[in-house]
Amino acid sequence: MSTQKKIRIGVVGTGGIARDHMKHYVTFDDVEIVGACDIAPGKARAFLDKYDLPNVPAFNSVAELIKNVEMDGASVCTYNTTHAECAVALLEAGIHVLCEKPMSFTLQGAVDMVRASRKSGKFLTIGFQPRYSFMRRKVDAIIESGALGKIYYVQSGGGRRRGIPFGTFVDKEKAGYGCLGDIGCYAIDECLHAIRYPKPLTVSAIATNHFGTNPKYYLGADKFDVDDFSVALVRLEGDVTFVFKDSWAMHADTLGDTLWLGTEGAIKLTSGKKEHNMPSRVMYFTDINGQHIDSVVWPNIPMDGYLCDVELERPIDMWFGKMRGFVDAVISNGPAPVPGEEILFNQAICDGIYRSSKLKKEVEIDIPAI
Question: Which of 29, 88, 243, 281 is the most buried if burial means most Cβ atoms within 10 Å?
Answer without folding.
Answer: 88
